[in-house]
């Protein structure tokens, strides 16, 4: 991750910088996954995206799409992430 990472959790919050990201990870209750399904991964130049579904051990289903922007086309460091998530019934 780049030092000035930006992670936009659409509809929830914007994380800016490694310190804020570390705090989010420390304070966030992780979902215990039972199944992760990746439907598509697309990359082009400095951008990439992935979408799929997560099923938690408590029975929740979440559809997601993450869009990544890398600092270079080699994709060695993430500069920005935009995440969309929708919980199903």
Radius of gyration: 14 Å
Q: What is the general shape?
A: globular
Order of helices and strands: EEHEEEE
Q: Based on the coordinates given, report the CATH architecture.
A: Roll
What is the count of structural domains?
1
In percent, how helical is the residue content? 10-25%
Find the count of extended strands (DSSP E, 2+ residues): 6
* Classification by helices and strands: mainly beta
Strand order of the largest sheet: 2-1-6-5-4-3
Topology overview:
Layout: E1 6-9, E2 13-16, H1 18-27, E3 33-44, E4 47-56, E5 61-70, E6 78-87
Parallel strand pairs: 1-6
Antiparallel strand pairs: 1-2, 3-4, 4-5, 5-6
Could you please describe the fold and organization of this structure?
The chain has about 90 residues and is mostly beta strands. The protein has one domain: Nuclear Transport Factor 2, Chain: A. It has 1 helix and 6 strands, in the order ββαββββ. Strands 2-1-6-5-4-3 form a 6-stranded mixed sheet, with helices on one face. Strand 3 and strand 4 form a beta hairpin.
Question: Which terms summarize this structure?
Answer:
89 residues, mainly beta, Nuclear Transport Factor 2, Chain: A, six-stranded mixed beta sheet, 1 helix, 56% strand
């Amino acid at each position: 991750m780049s030092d000035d990472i930006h992670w936009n959790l659409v509809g929830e919050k914007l994380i800016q910088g490694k310190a804020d990201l570390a705090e989010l990870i420390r304070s966030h209750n992780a979902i215990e996954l039972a199944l992760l399904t990746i439907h598509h991964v697309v990359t082009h130049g400095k951008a990439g995206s992935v979408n799929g579904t997560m099923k938690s051990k408590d029975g929740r289903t979440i559809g997601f799409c993450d869009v990544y922007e890398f600092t270079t086309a080699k994709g060695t460091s993430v500069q920005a992430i935009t995440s969309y998530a929708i919980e199903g019934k």
